[in-house]
């Protein structure tokens, strides 16, 4: 990759840094679950994260309604976009001249939302060429390819300059990497005073060790969920000072309970619901300032 200007083609695909990253690239290159594509089709924002907020039962109607499944998909998608809005709320004031980094950007839904809200540039990195192509195609269709770009790149070793970013985030993508390496890279690309935000699932140190449900989620996604304590320690070691730590577990449970009743279930719903209920697993937002 020679250019860092948004709007230029990013055809060069680097080799994965490790065999594990090669596995993860393959996983996301081959992913096409209806629960993600059909939700994205609702309004063209494609997410690979989960939802938060109360169910709007009035909008759902009853299961006997012939339109019920369509309404349920729309509702799940609304909750996933609400999750991304909450992440963006915590970035603080961002202007049109700022640049943000989405580490592990998936199909790019959060990046589009960030540009639409702030007018800023957004640089996304993913291991998957399929996802990067999907995201770049989508922003071209929207006419915002001069502001939003996905590229195939390891989030632990990005091409961005020191202090280039006013904000950066991981939306459900930090369970694929070592947290010390990850926060060292965010700390490098963020300017002093810049804001980092993550929404993630983490195991609860008060439970003791990762529960069987957490192990099941790890096996399902080939990831390695960290503990809440590990996040806070790795931030502290990398000049990232938490300003907000919010337990979103109660806010995400309605999403899972609704999803478990849909035709788009994937089989992982029970593990999320049971681990959130037994306290072994938590859905958290952490916002931290680069000092
Ligand atoms: C669950 S998806 C989340 C996607 C996106 N953040 C969202 O909210 O829709 C996880 C993403 O992390 C990316 N990822 C995992 N490890 C990575 C790494 N080392 N470097 C860059 N991206 C990585 C995957 O390619 C995938 O896009
Ligand atoms: C909170 C945790 C631990 C998340 C693990 C990372 C992950 C794979 C997120 C969801 O992606 P997705 O939207 O592709 O998954 P699904 O197909 O289940 O909707
Ligand atoms: Mg999904």
Offer a concise description of the structure:
The protein is of the alpha/beta class and 291 residues long.
What do you see in this structure?
This protein is of the alpha/beta class. Helix content is 41%, strand content 19%. The protein has one domain (19-290): Rossmann fold, CATH 3.40.50.150. It contains eleven helices and seven strands. The protein has a seven-stranded mixed beta sheet with strand order 3-2-1-4-5-7-6, with helices on both faces. Strand 4, helix 7 and strand 5 (190-203) form a beta-alpha-beta unit. The chain is globular, with a radius of gyration of 18 Å. The mean pLDDT is 96. It binds S-adenosylmethionine, geranyl diphosphate and magnesium ion. Geranyl diphosphate is lined by residues 33, 35-36, 48-49, 172, 175, 201, 217, 221, 223, 225, 266, 268. It is an enzyme of class 2 (transferase). This is Geranyl diphosphate 2-C-methyltransferase.
């Amino acid at each position: 990759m020679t250019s860092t200007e948004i709007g230029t083609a990013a055809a060069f695909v680097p080799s994965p840094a490790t065999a594990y990253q090669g596995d993860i690239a393959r996983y996301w290159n081959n992913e096409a679950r209806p629960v993600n594509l059909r939700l994205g089709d609702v309004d063209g924002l494609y997410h690979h994260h989960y939802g938060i907020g109360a169910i709007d039962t009035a909008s759902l109607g009853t299961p006997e309604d012939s339109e019920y499944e369509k309404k349920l998909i729309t509702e799940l998608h609304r909750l996933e976009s609400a999750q991304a809005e909450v992440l963006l709320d915590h970035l603080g004031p961002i202007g049109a001249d700022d640049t943000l980094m989405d580490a592990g950007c998936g199909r790019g839904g959060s990046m589009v939302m960030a540009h639409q809200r702030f007018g800023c540039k957004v640089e996304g990195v993913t291991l998957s060429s399929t996802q990067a192509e999907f995201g770049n195609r989508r922003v071209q269709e929207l006419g915002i390819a001069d502001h939003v770009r996905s590229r195939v790149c390891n989030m632990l070793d990005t091409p961005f300059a020191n202090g280039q970013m006013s904000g950066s985030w991981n939306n459900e993508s930090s369970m694929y990497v070592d947290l010390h390496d990850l926060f060292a890279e965010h700390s490098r690309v963020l300017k002093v005073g810049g804001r980092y935000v993550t929404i993630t699932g983490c195991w609860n140190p008060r439970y003791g060790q990762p529960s069987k449900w957490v192990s099941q989620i790890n096996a399902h996604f080939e990831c390695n969920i960290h503990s809440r304590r590990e996040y806070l320690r790795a931030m502290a070691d990398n000049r990232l000072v938490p300003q907000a730590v919010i337990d979103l577990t109660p806010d995400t449970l309605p999403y899972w309970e609704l999803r478990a009743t849909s035709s788009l279930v994937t089989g992982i719903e029970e593990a999320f619901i049971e681990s959130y209920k037994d306290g072994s697993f938590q859905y958290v937002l952490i916002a931290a300032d680069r000092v």
